[in-house]
């Protein structure tokens, strides 16, 4: 990835994956288009092949009884400067956690704690990376929201205090460019590059496993955004139509605006 600073964002393949090229001011997203040969794809291992196969739906009906366990609340650590990161509490420093990620303050969910220490999830590759930080180096708030994207049912469910608020159909990645699974979070909100993306783009900490580099940007970041004209395809049951991102009907996207940065986003197969 390019460092934060002047520049713009670029959108992969008509918005199916948000690829961060750089950031300017209030964050704008620029550029979209058709398939490009500039996307670098790794050779998928056997585990990735299995994930791709599992993207086919077994049902298109939301089943509350099958919903994963979600937390009633999540502590979120917000950085105000770059801080040291550690592999374990009291262990040696192994680098730093950046104060911002593409122009937005790093607001990271806390996944574990010990006296004086917090383990936080990171926005950078590899997916689901974590680091230990000193509790005194961050300010802590609480989110009562969580998002779960079920690739089997092709539905997104918003939870508040562990109670389902709504569940809606979504467009997810195709077999060639599947939406990655794992435990992620809301990294930032960004302005849309065009009306098709909806009122905003919710950028997650997930990174594509199928595409490692788009147009020399150094990454391919998964986002939640509007339908990009695919309302009919999403319909009421969802569809595999994107290159990794999560597409929603515009009215459904708007209902996610209250979710604060740092809130968990679980993508399950």
Give a verbal description of the structure.
The structure is a single chain. The protein folds into 2 domains: 184 residues, L,D-transpeptidase catalytic domain-like, CATH 2.40.440; 70 residues, Roll (SH3 type barrels). It is built from 3 helices and 24 strands. It is mainly beta and 269 residues long. The strands form 7 sheets. An 8-stranded mixed beta sheet has the order 16-15-14-24-18-19-21-23. Strands 12-11-10-5-13 form a 5-stranded antiparallel beta sheet, with no helix packed on it. It has a 3-stranded mixed beta sheet with strand order 2-1-3, with no helix packed on it. 6% of the residues lie in helices and 41% in strands. The N terminus is likely disordered.
Provide a short characterization of the protein structure.
This protein has 269 residues and is mostly beta strands. It has three helices and 24 strands.
Radius of gyration: 18 Å
What's the CATH class label of the largest domain?
Answer: Mainly Beta
Any idea what the shape is?
globular
Spatial sequence of strands, sheet with the most strands: 16-15-14-24-18-19-21-23
List keywords for this structure.
mainly beta, SH3 type barrels, 269 residues, eight-stranded mixed beta sheet, five-stranded antiparallel beta sheet, 2 domains, 3 helices, disordered N terminus, L,D-transpeptidase catalytic domain-like
